[in-house]
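Task 17 of the worksheet. Students: predict the tertiary structure of the chain below and write it out as structure tokens. Keep your answer in the requested format; marks are given for formatting as well as content.
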Amino acid sequence: MTCLTLAALAAPAPAARAQALPERIRAVVGDRMEMARTARYQQGREEQTERQTRTVKIGTDGELSLANISGDITVTRGSGSDTTIEIVKTARARTADEAKELLGLVTVNVVERTGRAEIKTVYPRDDEMRRNNRRNVNVSVAYAVTTPPGTRLTIASISGSIKVAEIKAELSANSISGTVRITSGGRIAAAKSISGDVEIIDTQTDGVIEASSISGGVTVRKVSARRIDVGSVSGAIAVQDVTSDRIQGHSISGTVEFSGPLAKGGRYELNSHSGDVRVVLEGSTGFEVEANSFSGSIHSDVPLKIGGSDDRMVRRRSIQGVFGDGSAVVSLTTFSGSVTISRK
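Model answer:
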């Protein structure tokens, strides 16, 4: 199950390329949602908790891989060269004895090699469930990881949020049903969720940032990167206070917003099918803009030269205009929303 999940999460999920989820993934998500509903009905039932702490010696620039099924994952910066993992398993059942028995059915495998550690939550197989006459195992596993800032991270979860703070090495964080939030990060290879918001805050990198969600919003705020590519199917896109030479933001049914300075020679492409597209510019960099809306209006507070005249208040469905030296290129497209260009 875990291998399937990692493969699914690694697949591209931008809005333009979104496809129906494989049957098995939908089944997994459905099972976890059913467990969540069951947990709500089990309020007041017996709960048992098991805690343990593991320490792995992967060094200050090692690699950590963590795969979870149900439960939140938090990773924070630590000192020294060791990585500490706090593991909390929680089970709910009709009786305390049954809850304690459930705890024993879920294990955490930790495999440590030179400079690398792999952590994986393991639930009983289907045949084991049938043998024990059980429909599901109502157990969640939460991880709190403290690791050196140079640790390379690969994190995946089926049902649970992922939060990573102050890790500067390469990072990949993917959840099927949960929020992904990265603050003060470094090289972010991927940040994805199928059913949850994705947030990247206060991050500087000379590389590429890719973030996407299918049914959640994507926020990139106070970020500097060479290129930023963000997308959502049914959520809003907010790229705020961002510095980048290349930005692509796309949503099918959500608003797409960008605020920040333009780079000379930069390219900025924002599009939505049924949402508004808004641009709030900083600085004085000139740009060439092409804006299109099939059924909405286009409005610019920035004086654009269109067809040989300056037109500050543009209200039409398609424009091509230039501001200043036109060194940057801005493309704004929406089908049923409006386009707005303003200055901060």
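Marker's comment: The radius of gyration is 23 Å. Residues 23-41 form the longest helix (19 residues).
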